[in-house]
Amino acid sequence: MTSTVTIQERQSKVTRWLLIPGIVWMSLFLVVPIAMIVYVSFWTQTTFNISSDPTLASWKQFFSSDTYTGSLWTTIRIWLIVLATTFIVGYPTALFVGLFVKSKTLSTVLLVVCVIPFWTSFLIRVLAWRPMLGKEGAINIVLLKIGIIQQPIEVLLFTELSVIIGMTQIYCVFMVGPIAFMLSRIDRNIIEAARDLGAGFGRIFWKIIFPLSLPGVVVGAIFVSVMVLGEFATSGALSGRKVNLLGNIIVTQVGSLKWAMASVVGVVLTIVMGIVIAGFLRIVDLKREL
Amino acid sequence: MESRIIKPALGLYVALFVLFLYGPFVVLTIISFQQGPDGGPQFPIVEWSTYWYRQVFGLTPPSRIAPLPFGEALIRSLVLALMTMVVSTVLGVMSAQAFRRSFKGSAFVFYLIVLGMMVPGVLTGLGTSLLANNIIGIERHWYTTAFATHVAYTFPFAFLVMLAILNRFDASVEEAAWSLGVDPWTTFRKVTFPLIFPGVLSAMLFAFTLSLDEFPRTLFASGRDQTLPLAIYGTFSVEIHPNIFAFGVLTTLFSFALLSVYGILMGLSVRRAKKMAMQEDIA
């Protein structure tokens, strides 16, 4: 009896020592930095310096300036649009890979094919959209040659549209993966049973397939949201600085050593992120589903 | 019956989807063979040439267009990725190992770790720089502050991979070793580690590639000396030349080489595991 107790004690001691390095690392280099952003957002900023005297000045400045509040709305708008486009573009692919492809090998091959573009550096992938979308870009050339358009489309590059196209291509795979995973786990007998009972494909889709894929949609949406909300490179490179997300504002503020304002924007971004993720987790109880 | 229409339609859609995914890469590959040094990063291709590839390696005569400043940045990024890979894999294996036993506050620790992949990089980068600048008062470097943020990002991935592997792990082999009087550390080295090795490889691959391409965390936290993604970001503000696309093709090939090494190691370790299992059967 006493020996089992000591074994348990020893094991919980081992557990503790196994955990401490990870906990310390994440506390020091993740939690403390975030807390630091909150703290610095109340610091006093002068043109050349920053001091720890508490003030609400930067916060007041954020909410009284159209540039800053405007970037908040732009961020939310772009996030919602990209969320929708990645879902619309990604779902049919996930449906094919996860449900319609019977062979396990083929579906793995298709998923690998989707992941391969990620082996090119993220920033070069962003840059590659420039010769695609430009006035003399690949898309315009192809459309002109086929004869669909007579004049090159100019709104493709250095607009909000180019940011949306670029982000959709870069992030849609994060939508496809989780949805395909959930779809592949659906018991085919349920679908067969529904078909035997005379349900058409539309009915089967809305009553069975879609609800069962919802946890995958939520996981994908969380992935996409986290990445799009924190973005600044794609919007910077493809919009010609016309689309300013919260991330872009942080970068410019840090660039001109306005650390307090950068922190305010950082806190706003954190709050938006928190609300978005909490919202998604309310729709679907992931712990129960996975 | 409907599936006779729906399945081919979806198949066609997936083909278009793949075209959409690969379009930019195809275009950047084509443009990387643009004539140099006067050919620009757009269509049409004036004349096919390997000029920009030679330019990346410094093999062309000097011209108006400066070579990409990637040499030292590349080395820094590789060293940083190696450091990140080792530390986050060790942390990942340790934490996942701890999670095999239930303990108080496990949900809290789980979320603390997973938070690292959820928080946008621009925020961790900003916070770490503020901390280094204003509280600790140290200079920022790619091998200190940026390294810390990289591990805080890749450690969760390593942890989740190891957690998935250890969930499927048959603990009876360890118990057998313990009951034969082998101490826990030797058991881990001789029994547990070889069995979880494929997972460790995946965790390493994840951490290495994520760190190599990590950009928002590095932007603020790395200080004076640039890593590779920062050097690429630097080209955003100047005129773009096809040398950046040639470089993109080369790094992609490098990634494939890395993936092949991973594949070979994975294949070898699976084969070894099979061999060991067969020997056990014979014995």
Automatic annotation (TrEMBL), chain A:
GO cellular component term, pick one: plasma membrane
Coiled coil: none
Membrane topology reported for the UniProt record: Multi-pass membrane protein
Coarse class of the protein's main subcellular location: membrane
Residues in the signal sequence: none
Record flagged with keyword Lyase: no
GO BP annotation list: transmembrane transport
Domain called ABC transmembrane type-1: residue spans: 72-277
Keyword Protease: no
Name of the protein: ABC transporter permease
Automatic annotation (TrEMBL), chain B:
GO cellular component: plasma membrane
Entry keywords, A to Z: Cell membrane, Membrane, Transmembrane, Transmembrane helix, Transport
Compartments reported by the entry: Cell membrane
Coiled-coil regions listed in the entry: none
Any GO BP annotation: transmembrane transport
Membrane-traversing stretches: 12-33, 73-96, 108-131, 151-170, 191-212, 244-268
Tagged with keyword Repeat: no
Membrane protein topology class: Multi-pass membrane protein
Keyword Nucleotide-binding belongs to the record: no
Leader sequence segment: none
SUPFAM superfamilies linked: MetI-like (SSF161098)
Positions of the ABC transmembrane type-1 domain: 74-262
InterPro entries: Bact_Polyamine_Transport, MetI-like, MetI-like_sf
Pfam families for this protein: BPD_transp_1
Main location: membrane
PANTHER family (alphabetical): PUTRESCINE TRANSPORT SYSTEM PERMEASE PROTEIN POTI (PTHR43848:SF2)
Stated family: Belongs to the binding-protein-dependent transport system permease family. CysTW subfamily.
Protein name: ABC transporter permease
Gene source species: Paragemmobacter aquarius
Lineage, opening ranks: Bacteria, Pseudomonadati, Pseudomonadota, Alphaproteobacteria, Rhodobacterales
